[in-house]
Specification:
Strand order of the largest sheet: 1-2-3
Strand content: 15-25%
Number of domains: 1
Number of strands: 3
Length: 107
């Protein structure tokens, strides 16, 4: 489980670095606002916020929600278009020689 938590933390760090150093990646997230969580069924996971051309990550999703919207219980269902957008963002993490230039436009 510790490895999974580390991978989720590393994902945020790698995305932040790509956004900072890759103009195409920075353009891809520009103007995008997205809040999502990646977690296991047991509840271990991480909360991510993409906003203002940057990504932030929180270890404890519940604490992040409490800070943001109060102590209400939330149910979030996903949007397939946002999942596809995020998949396009993670494509920036591939080594440049592996990915071919393809359209990463927002939906």
């Amino acid at each position: 489980m510790l490895q999974f938590k580390f991978l989720l933390w590393a994902l945020a760090q790698m995305l932040q670095r790509k956004i900072k150093h890759n103009p195409d990646c920075a353009q891809y997230v520009k103007g995008k606002r997205l809040v999502f969580q990646i977690r296991t069924a047991s509840g271990s996971g991480r909360h991510y916020v993409i906003e203002n051309g940057a990504i932030r990550s929180f270890k404890d999703a519940q604490a992040a929600f409490i800070r943001g919207v109060g102590s209400k219980d939330l149910t979030i269902s996903g949007d397939f278009r946002e999942v596809m957008w995020f998949q396009g963002l993670t494509a920036f993490l591939q080594p440049p020689k592996i990915i071919s230039p393809y359209d990463r436009t927002t939906f």
